Amino acid sequence: MGFLQKVALWGEMAMMLSSVRKETVFMKSWVVTLALAGFFILGACRSDIAAVFPASGAHSFHTLLAHEYRNIAAYEEEEKMRGQEAALFQSKARRALRHQRILPENPADYDVPDDARAALEEAYIILADALDYLKTSENELLLALAQTRFDCWLLTQRHFSDADNYIACRDQFKEAIARLSVSDRDYPTYFVYFEPSSVALEDEDMQTVRRFAEQYKGRVNWSVVVKGYADSTGNSQQNKIISMRRAIAVKNALGQHGIPLDDIAISAVGEAGVDHDTDDRYSRRVEMIARPVYLEDEINLTQVPGWHHSGQNTH
What we know:
By secondary structure, the protein is α+β, with helices and mostly antiparallel strands. The chain folds into two domains: 3-178, no CATH class; 190-310, CATH 3.30.1330.60. The protein contains ten helices and five strands, in the order H-H-H-H-H-H-H-H-E-H-E-H-E-E-E. The chain has helices spanning 3-20, 25-37, 49-52, 61-78, 83-97, 114-133, 140-156, 163-178, 203-216, 236-256; strands at residues 190-193, 222-229, 264-270, 285-292, 307-310. Helix 4 runs parallel beside helix 7. The protein is elongated and about 75 Å long. It starts with a helix and ends in a 5-residue tail after the last strand.
């Protein structure tokens, strides 16, 4: 099948998939990206649409990774006549099918344009973080797409005449990363509690802060949000102030345990949402949550109620 025929077939498949899965915004965005780029024609010579976008829950990460590496290898060999790149991707596909650990290519090992190196190195660090911490069943397809598109971006970035392809790979990598999700089961919210009118952390709560910090310190691509609450004793302005002071106390304690203060945002909720008939210790709390900064508004800080503060120590 010739290249133009594959492009036409891919366009037909894109329209079919868009009409069948209108409710799936993400899949449609991938279809539009690939169709507009005319790029890769990922499996377009196959008649089975499921072969192009296998369902994440039905396949292991290694199977999905092998599938995507085979697609890229076929494109490199049949359309670009780049045998060396094709052989690399085929080798990765075979090793993935044997359930070996397949690492993304490292920009340090390649001669890429100077103006592209910083972006590639940053993307490599983000991808490594996602592969380490976000490899869940819900994310397997996205991670397979992200890893293979990163490798494609890195290798095609070297070819100045192949700008459309490396741009398509780069954009698909970024979208896959942004669409990853974080499980509350794996990364739950931590709570510390306060006595009435107090901003002091008890020993038990300091231990909670320490456990949280131990889990997340050193993760350079993660941010922490600390939200303070108060019961309904006193007026709302006083409660907003004391909830802010509690959040600050927790932020400073996290800093003492190794979390960079610039990576911690705080919010004062005050007595918002408190049941005035059942005011209790739970109302006088601070919540701590950590999420990767590269996800699509994962923490949603712009929607957090109360006063916000990010960066630098606060007393």
